[in-house]
Design goal:
The complex is a heterodimer of chains A (420) and B (355).
Chain A (H helix, E strand, L loop, with lengths): L1 H35 L1 H7 L10 E8 L6 H20 L4 E8 L4 H14 L3 E5 L2 H14 L2 E4 L5 H4 L3 E2 L4 E2 L7 E3 L4 H14 L5 E7 L3 H17 L2 E8 L8 H9 L4 E4 L3 H13 L5 E4 L21 E4 L8 H14 L5 H17 L10 H13 L5 E3 L2 E6 L5 E2 L3 E6 L2 E4 L2
Parallel strand pairs in A: 1-2, 1-3, 3-4, 4-7, 8-9, 8-10, 10-11, 11-12
Antiparallel strand pairs in A: 5-6, 12-16, 13-14, 14-15, 16-17
Helix pairs in contact in A: 1-2, 2-3, 3-12, 4-5, 7-8
Chain B lengths: L1 H31 L5 H4 L2 H20 L7 H18 L7 H27 L6 H18 L1 E6 L2 E6 L11 E5 L4 E2 L7 H20 L1 H11 L1 H6 L4 H24 L4 E2 L6 H14 L4 H16 L9 H17 L1 H10 L1 H13 L1
Antiparallel strand pairs in B: 1-2, 1-3, 4-5
The chains are: A alpha/beta (420), B mainly alpha (355).
């Protein structure tokens, strides 16, 4: 008897889930944007009345759940702030929708297709590199403008020559642009910086060899280091499964007498390395890349350990710059967190797209393909440049890569301080 | 009585073939009418690949009675070898379907070879060793492929390990690029290719199960000592089922890889193996139609319908899994289903009349 009741109760539960689910689906696209953005929802009714009130649908995919969720959510929140600000100005209106890709290229393509069904006109790309390689190919085939905040792999853009074979393996996808540095630029810029500032004579590298981002930076770093005559005494690897224990890698770096350790990786793994190196009393100079940004806000991490860590990053949340401090305070207010580089990049993406389009004449039902042509022409034109949180006077060319200069930062007393 | 069993069985087999065929025709009709949302359309070919993987694992788990926890490893072998073959032949002038066939054949042959390597030492053992060794095999394949570099230049294929510099000359092209995997794949697999492979797998599995060898395999599953006492060569028959299963997983991998823009070794990890095992267990051990339905529902659901729950998506997915398990195992629901499906009941009656 009780079993019967259980079965009935479960069946009822499922029916309820079905009904509530269906009810949600019709309004989910607007509800998701409205719930996070109270300002946007009040403005949304206004544009229909005004003459130039065109609403563009902007989509993006990123890991909103799972291990890399911190990056996806940061980008989503950053983009949301930009959309709110733009909508508050009146005129051209934007509607933002982010879909979850769990840092998986297969799911990213589904997320992209879901956005396409929704009627997305401009695509903010995928937040992480691996999914972005897949979605950029799709967006290229569909001719939807793609500007990624943080997917830094060269495979995203295409058209980059493999230095080993001198052939272009993935043809340039003409509508794909990046807001962040390309991996090789970061690697060679880091090597150049270490060389110029004479930060170390013997360098050790620990990198994640099952990750596109980390390996990409390592490869260009080691090429450049060899060119400059920097001695790399130890190069050790780890993978997703072994990203908690670094005793072997640290011992190798220590035994080979490295006085600088280069860490091209995201900050969770880097924080583990710092903690474990501290435990064995190894104190070299640590040097990171933009993925290191965020280490100071990591829960339960003693920021004293990151003292003296140097990194190249385009964004500094402690900057006294007016735009940055306004962005940081809005972000803190809405999401209760200090924004990282991903949030700032996404914010810049939305604003640069808006800047490129605001003077254009856009029909209310402009097709994604027409917008794409307009945006490509604008982004590659020589007179278009954008000043944002992550750089001044950013320009793009046909390769899709952004040109801006990385800022060298060092962590002092738990805050970033500019190096030069 | 024997006639009856065979007739009932073949009837069930034909129902399975029929359902797959009808589903294929219906899907093709909706796709060609342009009425399918692109989100769903993009899922069709990977769905076929997961169905094939589930069928193949069902052969190991349901029919052979051995637990394999590294089935994604075989998929990985098939995916990377099949995809390499298809890409190496890109300029050979072979038509798309020709390259597809070559990719699937190469993928399944090499996955079968991997199955032999794993199976020969392990299937001689008794107990749960196969589960542990396949688990390790999946991890080994993942690590190997992560460090593997394969390129092609006018002189042919070149292989390298650990270092990307594999001596490709000018004009060469990297195919498998270490942790970056294969990128820039031309999507050549199609729903039709997936359908044909599913049908082939069903034919192979049903005929194997109904054959002399199949009965030997199931006898080993049910009681190894009794089976060996009547002279059944345990290792031979176990290896037969296991290698066929590995080959099918390889075909699934090749089909999958050629439906994506990019594949990396990390895609075929322990989680994927478990995902396929979930399809098999929830569909019913030894029940091929069950595997097909479970793989379809559990693959499509979280990507389409559950997207509206955003952050709670995977939570609800877990609830769906538990509900499915409870419902398919409840005798009351089964009785209810039997009442709702008079067709099934009358089929049974017919069988009785026949006897």
């Amino acid at each position: 008897m009780s079993k019967k009741f259980l079965a009935l109760a479960l069946a009822l539960l499922m029916v309820c889930a079905c009904l509530t689910g269906c009810g949600d689906s019709s309004s989910s696209s607007t509800a998701s944007t409205a719930s996070t953005a109270s300002t946007a929802s009040t403005d949304e009714s206004a544009p229909e009345a005004s003459a130039d009130g065109v609403t563009l649908k902007i989509g993006g995919t990123g890991p909103l759940t799972g291990g890399a969720a911190i990056y996806g959510n940061a980008a989503k929140n950053g983009a949301q702030i930009a959309v709110d600000e733009i909508n508050a100005l009146g005129g051209l209106q934007l509607e933002l929708r982010y879909e979850d890709d769990v840092h998986d290229s297969e799911k990213a393509v589904t997320a992209y297709n879901t956005l396409k069904d929704w009627g997305m006109q401009i695509f903010l790309g995928s937040v992480t590199s691996k999914p972005a390689v897949a979605t950029s190919t799709e967006a290229n085939a569909d001719h939807i403008f793609f500007l990624t905040p943080s997917a830094s792999s060269t495979d995203v853009l295409g058209g980059v020559e493999n230095p080993l074979t001198e052939t272009i393996e993935i043809p340039r996808k003409d509508n794909i642009f990046q807001m962040c540095f390309v991996d090789p630029n970061q690697g060679s810029a880091s090597a150049q910086y270490i060389y110029d500032q004479k930060l170390g004579t013997k360098v050790a590298v620990i990198y994640k060899n099952d990750d596109v981002y980390s390996t990409g930076i390592y490869n260009s770093f080691s090429t450049k280091a060899e060119e400059l005559g920097i001695e790399v005494v130890s190069a050790t690897t780890f993978t997703d499964d072994t990203s908690t224990d670094f005793s072997v890698q640290i011992a190798d770096a220590k035994d080979s007498g490295a006085d600088l350790v280069f860490l091209p990786m995201y900050y969770e793994a880097a924080s583990m390395i710092l903690i474990q190196a501290d435990a064995v009393g190894y104190e070299p100079t640590w040097f990171g890349v933009d993925g290191m940004d965020g280490i100071l806000t990591l829960d339960g991490f003693d920021t004293a350990l990151a003292e003296g860590v140097m990194l190249l990053t385009p964004f500094n949340a402690d900057s006294s710059d007016e735009a940055t401090s306004k962005f940081v305070s809005t972000y803190k207010e809405q999401f209760g967190d200090v924004p990282n580089q991903f949030a700032a990049d996404a914010y810049d993406c939305v604003w640069s797209i808006y800047n490129a389009l605001k003077d254009e004449d856009i029909a209310a039902d402009a097709s994604a393909s027409d917008l794409c042509d307009k945006l490509i022409a604008k982004f590659t034109s020589s007179d278009f440049s954008y000043d944002g949180l992550t750089g001044e006077g950013m320009t793009w060319d046909e390769t899709g890569a952004v040109s801006k200069s990385p800022k060298g930062m060092v962590i002092q007393d738990g805050a970033y301080v500019g190096l030069d | 009585m024997k006639r009856l069993i065979i007739r009932k069985k073949s009837r069930k087999n034909f129902i399975t073939y029929g359902i797959v065929l009808v589903a294929y025709i219906a899907l093709m009709a909706v796709v060609s009418a342009g009425a399918m949302p692109s989100a769903l359309q993009g899922l069709l070919v990977p769905m076929c690949a997961y169905i094939i993987a589930a069928l193949s694992l069902n052969l190991t788990v349901g029919v052979l009675g051995e637990l394999s926890l590294g089935h994604a490893g075989f998929m990985s072998v098939g995916a990377f070898t099949g995809c390499t073959a298809a890409m190496a032949l890109a300029d050979s002038g072979l038509p798309v379907w020709g390259r597809m066939i070559v990719a699937v054949v190469v993928g399944s042959l090499l996955a079968a070879a991997a199955g032999v390597i794993v199976g020969v030492p392990v299937l001689r053992l008794q107990g749960d060793y196969l589960a542990i060794v396949t688990l390790a095999f999946g991890e080994i394949i993942k690590t190997v492929v992560t460090n593997l570099y394969i390129g092609i230049d006018p002189n042919g294929l070149r292989f390298g390990f650990l270092k990307p510099d594999i001596g490709l000359g000018k004009g060469g092209r990297m195919i498998v690029n270490g942790p970056n995997g294969i990128s820039g794949i031309t999507k050549i697999s199609s729903l039709t290719a997936g359908f044909i492979i599913i049908m082939l797998c069903l034919v192979i599995i049903f005929n194997l199960v109904d054959s002399h060898s199949g009965r030997a395999i199931m006898a080993l599953r049910d009681n190894r000592i009794a089976a060996e006492s009547v002279g059944i060569n345990a290792t031979k028959y176990k290896l037969m089922a296991f290698v066929i299963s590995a080959a099918m997983a390889g075909a699934a991998g090749a089909l999958y890889a050629l439906s994506q823009n990019t594949v990396t070794a990390n895609k075929f990890d322990f989680n994927t193996s478990i995902l396929i095992l979930v399809f098999v267990v929830l569909g019913g051990l030894g029940n091929m139609l069950g595997s097909i339905v479970a793989a379809t529902v559990l693959y499509i659901l979280p990507e389409t319908w559950l997207r509206q729950f955003s952050d709670y998506r995977m939570l609800i997915y877990a609830v769906v899994l538990i509900l499915m398990m409870l419902i398919t195992n409840s005798s009351k629901v089964r009785m209810l289903l039997a009442k709702l499906l008079p067709h099934k009941k009358s089929a049974e009656k017919e069988g009785e009349a026949d006897a």
